[in-house]
Amino acid sequence: MADGIINVYKEKGFTSHDVVAKMRGILKQKKIGHTGTLDPMAEGVLPVCLGKATKLCDMLTDKTKTYEAVLLLGRETDTQDTTGEILAEYPVTADEAQVKEAVLSFFGHYDQIPPMYSALKVDGKKLYELARAGKEVERKARPVEILDIHVDRIELPRVTMTVTCSKGTYIRTLCYDIGRKLGCGGCMESLLRTQVSGFCLKDSLTLTQIEELRDDGTLENHILAVDKMFSEYPALKMKQDFDKLVHNGNSFYRNQAEGDSRLPDGLIRVYDSRNQFIGVYVPDREKELLKPQKVFLGGTP
């Protein structure tokens, strides 16, 4: 079974769940998960976690993401993108300077009302299910952060922009909000995700490419090992006599690992005596030991 993270290029028309289903077929393994939903019309970077790395899915979902989006001004739809039913159309009277000013005004923190066509739940029901049934419910605004935003090209009524944002930001809704600010409405025409944390567009692989790499036996070269996600943290290697502690996911004293006997500061990567990655540990100064925060190996290998 493959373990690690692979940078998949999600193509248009596929849901994130479709990608996972196809990856299960390609790799002939069930333990696979994606790291954040991309709409079917969107394309680009979708890190997919394999085997033990599925424990990383929630961590990668929280990472910042970068998108290239095309905003179509003058149109509002029920889905806030061009795949939806047109609700209203307005003339675009703003000039390029006004458009740029409106786009850049969303830099920083703002409260965003999630779209009805989303997987968020209200009273146990997904919003898109309610929307398909013709129902609209009140949604509470949620704080999001636009970490970087700039206009790449303006060819009215289209505006191409690059956005880096926090978890939970809907680019469709950002397009809608910009259109509202300009008084002409707007919706998203296309969306390309170019980066998720350290995973970049230039390194992503289509499902067809992944199949080809599997067939020629080189796919492993494109799977990022789990411990590489924690490479910024220092590492500790266990003494052989105490491997059993970490194989069972237990805490351990600093002198049960090699090297300096002082308790380290911050998160630590822990390996057994055979250099097999165990997980990430955090110091417990009160008890003078290291306790597991996230373990990727259970049971004696």
Automatic annotation (TrEMBL):
EC number: 5.4.99.25
Protein name: tRNA pseudouridine synthase B
Stretches assigned to the Pseudouridine synthase II N-terminal domain: 24-171
Record's function text: Responsible for synthesis of pseudouridine from uracil-55 in the psi GC loop of transfer RNAs.
Positions of the tRNA pseudouridylate synthase B C-terminal domain: 172-230
One biological process term in Gene Ontology: tRNA pseudouridine synthesis
MF (Gene Ontology): RNA binding; tRNA pseudouridine(55) synthase activity
UniProt keyword list: Isomerase, tRNA processing
Domain of life where this protein originates: Bacteria
Catalytic activity: uridine(55) in tRNA = pseudouridine(55) in tRNA
One Pfam family this sequence matches: TruB_N
First-level EC class: isomerase
UniProt record similarity statement: Belongs to the pseudouridine synthase TruB family. Type 1 subfamily.
InterPro entries noted in UniProt: PsdUridine_synth_cat_dom_sf, PsdUridine_synth_N, tRNA_psdUridine_synth_TruB, TruB_C
Residue positions of the active site: 39
Keyword field contains tRNA processing: yes
